[in-house]
């Protein structure tokens, strides 16, 4: 399986010129699956320290349009989207193939700082960290800040994961994110693949793009750029199994 990863424009609107260009870039890479970034449609929601039901509802509608727009393709598409929980939003990862959408994971760990007041906007979902099988590959998800909780990478290795998907909406130093992904790949033996936004999230806060993929064992494959916003990586299950059978992956807790 060949998986496309990307950097998509911030405030991406379905049916816009940016949307059509991004779809064209994805199509030209001929992937078997696609990873979009964290909550890719419309404005980034948790920019204010107090949540707004009106803003949250608009974000849900933007992602409804996003989901509707990708029903025309049978290519498995991974993404996260906001949904209403008990009192706030839940940030949920899905895989969608045609009109069929399957839930994978709810984001569990949230930052709280300018541009990222997520703990005020989102509630924790089920608290489960499970895998899902898609076309013979076993996928797991760690959403953005969850990449810094490496214990779940070892958990996913025990569940037989081949790939850890890490959709992001992040700025900061690219080196820190790649270091985190490298460590996850070393301790899990999985591929770690990440997509990100690029552009303003709010005043003075910018997402810096840079989707990337790391192979089992920690080798960086490639990083997206403005000139090449979509890359792809071929998943080799044999490499995953070989790394997971060796140090440090085989060590039991």
Account of the protein in words:
The protein is of the alpha/beta class and 253 residues long. The chain contains six helices and 16 strands. The strands form three sheets. Strands 1, 2, 3, 4, 5, 12, 13 and 16 form an eight-stranded mixed sheet that branches. Strands 8-9-10-11-14-15 form a six-stranded mixed sheet, with helices on one face. It has a two-stranded antiparallel sheet with strand order 6-7. A hairpin with a 5-residue loop joins strand 14 (212-214) and strand 15.
Which helices and strands appear, and what pairs or packs with what?
Elements: E1 2-9, H1 17-28, E2 33-35, H2 53-69, E3 77-84, E4 89-97, E5 100-106, E6 112-113, E7 116-117, H3 118-121, E8 132-134, E9 137-141, H4 151-158, E10 163-165, H5 174-188, E11 191-194, E12 196-202, E13 205-208, E14 212-214, E15 220-223, E16 230-234, H6 237-244
Can you describe this structure in just a few lines?
By secondary structure, this protein is an alpha/beta fold. It is 25% helix and 30% strand. The strands form 3 sheets. Strands 1, 2, 3, 4, 5, 12, 13 and 16 form an 8-stranded mixed beta sheet that branches.
Helix coverage percent of residues?
25-40%
Q: Strand portion, in percent?
A: 25-35%
N-to-C CA distance: 31 Å
Gyration radius, rounded: 17 Å
Mean pLDDT: 95
Enumerate the spans where pLDDT stays under 50 for 5 or more consecutive residues: none
Number of helices: 6
Class by SSE composition: alpha/beta
